[in-house]
Amino acid sequence: MRCACGQKNPPEAWFCMACGQPLGVLLPEERRFVCVVFFDLVRSSERFRKGLRTAYHDLQEALEEAARTARAHGGFVHRFLGDGVLVLFGAPRARGREPWRALETALRMVRASPLPARAGVASGEALWAPLGSGQAGEPTVLGPPVVLAERLSKLAEPGEVLTEGPTLALASGTEAELLGPREARGLGPVEVHRVLGVRLSLDPEEEALLDRLRRVFQKPPARLNLVGPPGSGKSLLLDRFVEHPPFPAVVLERMGPETPLRATLLEAVEKAFGAPEALLAPAALPEKLEVAWRYSLGLLPRPGWSREALEGAILEAWRRVLLRLPRPLLLVLKDLHNPDPTLERLLREDFPHLLLLVESRRPLFAPYLALRGPKPPLLLTLQPALDALPPRERQALLAWGVLGEVPEELLQGILGPFSRQRLWREGLLLGHAPLPEVAQVARALVPEERQRAWHREAARFFRARRDLLPLARHLEEAGEARKAALTFRLLAQKAWREGHPEEAVPLYQRAMRADPSLEEALRPELQDALASLGLAPEAERGPRREDPILQALGKAEHPFDLLPLLPGLKPYPREEAQARIQLAGALWRAFQPRRALEALDPFPPQAPPDLKLLERSLRAGLLMDLGRHEEAEACLGEAGEGDLEALARFHSTRLRLLLEMGRLKEALAEGEAAYREAPHPWLAAALLTAWTLRGRLREDLLREAVKHPDGKGLALLALAHHRFSRGESPVGLLKEALREARKLANPYVYHLALLSLALYRWAQAPGKAQALSQYLLYQTHRTGFAVHLELARLLRAQLLLEAGERVDHLLGFTPSVPLTRGWRAALVGEGGEEDLRGYGILGRWVRQLWGSRGRVWTRSRP
Q1: Distance between CA 668 and CA 670 in Å, rounded?
Q2: For position 339, what pLDDT does the model report?
């Protein structure tokens, strides 16, 4: 196919092999990052004094020479403007190294010109689009860099190339002389630089990579896969490496499906060996393999073999040829992102005289050297990767980047069929969407009108599917603000109804951003959603005031009245959390720990921090009541956020866990630190208990503990234990603690007081101790308080053993805590006293009782 530039291309080519334009495809309107060269002949009008024909001949010769030089260096000759030439690098197709190539081309054009000439070079974003509704038949480039390049050329003296700072910064290594600010017509003052020479320079990190490449390729055989995302600098590194290759090198540019592989291979062979026969002769291939090899170079027509047989023969032929290379050869394959499968298989093999360096975006073989992400500006660095794609895949990738993560079905509907596999093999996809930097570039490349059109198509697609969230997003991007805002509002209301006001809040906020005119209507709903999370006061005229569930909640007189309301409280996490905590607390005080634990689930994860902390404390306490101390400890990690009440409850529960697990020393240290941070009567009561077990009564903690209803019961228990440790009777205090526990319905204090009274009566009045133990056994078995049940069984077993009765039925359980484990071990004759040392005075008390009775029991008596 012949391109508009005049180049004749082979049938399988998709891009022009001279100028790089897509063949048979009109370029869409898009933004591009371009480096513009404006070449200008100086005082050309004076030549017309010699006659029109002579002047025309001289100008034609000079401009044609400039155009040839530009094309030879990869520039696109966009316009002949009078006595000037406009050359683009980066449009219609980018090839990489645009800033360096533009500056070097400008210098060569000026120096090679038969007439006095000058040039200006500028870089930046421009619009590549047709003017006049496309009646001219081709796009044109519009934008600041075009104007600036022309103004710089007018400021230059004959033989000079001028550029501006941004272009110079992009082309590191370029030698230039700062001329200072110059007035550019219509643009104001511009910092101008005179270009003296162009060379490629790397930063220190890239220089280190270059040294590594040189070390790898010191001698054959050697191979390395240079891997990195688009725009990471792989090509610049290769260009520097091949400036001074360690061995004769053949550099092959991009070898993909759109580049005729046979023509590329023939070019490589001719570059390295002059003629194919020079490479073929040493291999001495059989006739069939020689036919396959010559076909792979395009020297013979396709033999009539099956595809598998032909590919296998080509692979074997090249393997034998490369094994017999007559001398070392460095083969550099650039941009090998989507290689031919046969070539990819060949790359995995080692050959004695071959040094292979391959550039790709994903590893094709080992070993490989990985580079980091793309360098700014992204539009400049990623354009070559996008432009190397077939037009349909390129459009699909741009649309994908603009639309975000959408089904391929949608893209196929907008753009027609394309190959996702091709985009993946090119290393341009991450999961089900383009690389983030590719998406960013896509949004810069594609004009807003085209983006909005794609978003409208996407909105229609998701509306048909009744998928509201992507529908709202695409409506917003399409510029349909009111529809987008109303859809976001529907989503917010739905999320709130389903119990997720934390999801509703950002949706309301997004609705207000999409259409600010709806803010007044949406503000009360947003405020009430925040109020349901405990983050704002209730709105005066919001939906919460009208909800019958919240009205019923306000009228509830007893915590048990909350149970039927819980399902309706799902949209209100704060109120639901409060209701579950109140209900669980009431059930616990009703001696129903299992039902209390069930009442906490499911606890709303969106509840305010102080309620979450209260729930963790309550849950841990209930788990301990049920003998599940490992689960309880998992609930009692870091305290996190919470008010004074919540923090005090948390630390008190934590102290209870440590005391029940026999970690008295740890409990005292943590309790003192917590009390300094959050002084509270309930925490004072828990800390007082710990100090009492240590053998010390803290009067300051006692005075503080009695200020709290539950703390008063614990304080009485602590005072009773202290009195008993001094040889005084604790009975009066224990009975008072029982009265407090019954009055307030505190099962924890109630059971501890009963157990303490029974333990005291054990030595003083065994009959009363037996009665108390029997009642405690019945009570804890009925209500499910596991640890207290274990203690009741052990105490009952202790007393029965002393009376000479069998107790196997009482000892057949798995202890929950070290105290019951040690006591049970002692009863079955396995020792266990050492397990009680972490319980302070309580452990000593039990051991003292054993000693005072002489330990005369045995596990079984006749």
Answers
A1: 6
A2: 83
- For the four alpha carbons of 55, 61, 67 and 69, in that order, the dihedral sign comes to negative
Cα torsion 439, 445, 448, 453: sign: negative
Give the helix/strand (H/E) hosting 142: strand 139-142
User: Can you list the residues of the chain whose pLDDT is less than 50?
Assistant: 1, 24-27, 133-135, 853-862
Q: What are phi and psi of 78, to 5 degrees?
A: -90, -40
What is the SS3 assignment for 685? helix
Spell out the residues 6+ positions from residue 21 whose beta carbon is closer than 8 angstroms to its own. Answer: 3, 4, 5, 15, 27, 76, 92, 93
> Contact 84/41 with Cβ under 8 angstroms?
yes
Query: How far is residue 598 CA from its own chain's centroid?
Result: 36
List the one residue out of 750, 694, 692 whose CA is nearest residue 722: 692
The pLDDT, as a whole number, for residue 633 is 95
Contact 584, 599 (CB under 8 A): yes
Question: Which pLDDT does position 23 carry in this prediction?
Answer: 57
Give the contacts of 846 (CB within 8 A, at least 6 positions apart): 759, 819, 823, 836
Classify each residue of 218-249 as buried b or exposed e, where b means 16 or more C-beta atoms within 10 Å of its C-beta. Answer: eebebbbbbbbbbbbbbbbbbbbbeeebbbeb
Pairing of strands 117-130, 161-164: parallel
Beta strands in 418-544 (DSSP E): 429-430, 433-434
Cβ atoms < 10 Å from Cβ of 250: 18
User: If we measure between CA atoms, which residue out of 328, 100, 75, 76 comes closest to residue 235?
Assistant: 100
- Measure the CA–CA gap between 569 and 499, rounded to whole angstroms: 8
Assigned token pair, 388: 């190397």
pLDDT tens profile 157-203:
999 999 999 999 999 999 999 999 999 988 899 999 999 999 999 98
What is the secondary structure of 758-792 as a DSSP string? HHHHHHH-HHHHHHHHHHHHHHHHHHT-HHHHHHH
The amino acid occupying position 832 is G
Find residue 142's DSSP bridge partners.
127
- Specify the DSSP class assigned to residue 15: B
Residues in the chain: 862
Instruction: Write the DSSP symbol of residue 489.
Output: H
Structure tokens at 487: 């859809």
Tokens 């980091």 sit on residue = 372
**Bridge partners, 436 (sequence order):** none
Three state DSSP letters for 580-645: HHHHHHHHHHCCCHHHHHHHCCCCCCCCCHHHHHHHHHHHHHHHHHCCCHHHHHHHCCCCCCCCHH
| Type of residue at 258 | E
**Model confidence, pTM:** 0.70
**In what order do the strands lie in the sheet containing 329-333?**
249-252, 329-333, 354-360, 222-227, 368-370
Determine the Cα angle at 380 with ends 376 and 386, to 5°.
Answer: 120
> Among residues of the chain, what percentage have pLDDT more than 70?
91
In the structure encoding, which two tokens stand for residue 722, read together? 């202290």
CA distances from 309 to 288, 292, 315 (A): 11, 10, 10
Pick from 35, 34, 14: nearest CA to 129: 34
Distance between CA atoms of 469 and 533, rounded to whole angstroms? 22
pLDDT tens sequence across 692-738: 988 899 999 999 999 998 899 999 999 998 898 888 899 999 999 99
76 contacts: CB under 8 Å, gap ≥ 6: 19, 20, 21, 70, 87, 88, 89, 91, 92, 93
Count the helix, strand and coil residues of the chain and give each as a percent rounded to the nearest 5. Answer: 60, 10, 30
* Buried residues in 734-745 as b, exposed as e (16+ CB within 10 A): bebbbebbeeee
